Amino acid sequence: KTIKNRFVVGLVDDMAESIRRFDVIMGINNKTKLYEKCNREYFGGGKKRKNSNAHPYIGAERYTYKLLTEQNDLDVQLYNYILELYEEQKEIIDFFSNTSSTAIAPV
């Protein structure tokens, strides 16, 4: 419940949407030139991205994947919960995005 009540979660696999959600929650104006420059610099395409690390793909059918998931079971459970929470939070954040121009106050 702590994660659900106190955090807005984002996913690297859905970076653009995650950043949009953080912008809404923090009341960040994404229409400025500085915002656009930072966004391009950190999340833009190509080798110039600063927020990118290459990782090898490990398919779920491989022994390595199975071993990793067995040894990190709690991490896998947490990740699966975050995936669910990410979907749940979309409706709430979209509501605030359409009704408020200021940041959402912490609970």
How would you describe what is shown here?
The chain has helices at residues 2-6, 15-26, 33-43, 63-71, 73-99. The protein is flat, with a radius of gyration of 17 Å. With 107 residues, it is mainly α. The mean pLDDT is 84. 60% of the residues lie in helices and 0% in strands. The longest helix has 27 residues, at 73-99.
Question: How does the SSE layout of this entry go?
Answer:
Layout (H helix, E strand, L loop, with lengths): L1 H5 L8 H12 L6 H11 L19 H9 L1 H27 L8
Question: Summed up, what is this model?
Answer:
This protein starts with a helix and ends in an 8-residue tail after the last helix. The chain is built from five helices and no strands.
Shape: flat
How many strands in all?
0
- What is the terminal separation in angstroms? 13 Å
What value does the Rg take, in angstroms?
A: 17 Å
Which structural class is indicated by helix and strand composition? mainly alpha
Low-confidence sequence ranges: none
In terms of DSSP E residues, the strand content is under 5%
Considering DSSP H and I runs of 4 or more, what fraction of the residues is helical?
55-70%
Tally of DSSP helical segments: 5
Q: How do the SSEs run, as a string of H and E?
A: HHHHH
Largest sheet: none
Mean pLDDT: 84
